[in-house]
Recover the amino acids of this structure.
């Protein structure tokens, strides 16, 4: 009786000689395209490589995929330390539904988030020292619920205060690949977001050096403009 394996071409009858995954650049690009569409969050290089043959050139595959989508309504972008498909920035206004009005973050939430982003890890007391007003727990809770901040390590100081840091969700929402992409001081000044006044320097003991030659101990008012902890401003006026 003839062995069934003898009827197969050389190699196909050997269980260890099964055909491997396609290594054609176009096929690999299709595979990565499907992975990115199926993923609810950006995929890092390592996560993509797990699904590709060891010999695959991931950089070439991503370059091919990026070129395929260049100039289209959807683009391949690097965000939050990974890769994802996003709608083209120039189409953002056209995609907004008239019934949906963009909501602005409250000033308290915006200031708190900016301080955490630029000074992380930072404690609530340090946030208050920079803002000049006490920060309600509700503001931090709102940012936490949005998935933009998370608790960091506790400081090894008396009271072991909790610190706060940003999350990959923060990078994803604001289309940043890493914290290095945050605008610098000079960029913000050029955009009119900062004035020319010297920045406050917080010193040990809660004292502040504002550049006038005298060291001041700040007193924080308790009128947090966001006592309820709302993340977004409900009105049309700036918070």
């Amino acid at each position: 009786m003839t062995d069934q394996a003898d009827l197969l071409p050389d190699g196909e009858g050997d269980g260890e000689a099964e055909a491997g995954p396609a290594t054609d650049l176009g096929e690999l690009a299709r595979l990565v395209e499907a992975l990115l569409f199926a993923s609810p969050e950006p995929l890092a290089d390592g996560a993509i490589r797990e699904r590709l043959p060891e010999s695959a050139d991931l950089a070439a595959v991503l370059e091919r995929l990026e070129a395929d989508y260049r100039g289209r309504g959807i683009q391949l972008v690097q965000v939050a330390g990974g890769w994802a498909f996003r709608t083209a920035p120039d189409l953002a206004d056209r995609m907004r539904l008239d019934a949906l009005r963009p909501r602005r973050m409250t000033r308290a939430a915006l200031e708190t988030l900016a301080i955490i982003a630029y000074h992380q890890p930072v404690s609530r007391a340090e946030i208050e020292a920079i803002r000049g007003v006490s920060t309600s727990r509700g503001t931090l809770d709102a940012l936490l619920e949005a998935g933009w901040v998370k608790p960091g390590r506790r400081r090894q100081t008396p009271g072991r205060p909790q610190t706060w840091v940003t999350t990959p969700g923060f990078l994803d929402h604001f289309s940043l690949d890493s914290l290095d992409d945050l605008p610098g001081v000079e960029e913000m000044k050029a955009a009119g977001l900062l004035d020319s006044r010297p920045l406050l320097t917080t010193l040990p003991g809660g004292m502040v050096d504002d550049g006038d030659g005298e060291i001041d101990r700040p007193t924080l008012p308790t009128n947090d403009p966001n006592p309820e902890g709302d993340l977004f401003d409900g009105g049309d006026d700036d918070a």
User: Anything to note?
Assistant: The radius of gyration is 26 Å. The CA atoms of residues 6 and 118 lie 68 Å apart. Strands lie at 74-79, 82-87, 122-123, 149-151, 163-166, 201-202, 208-209, 215-216. DSSP finds nine helices and eight strands in the chain.
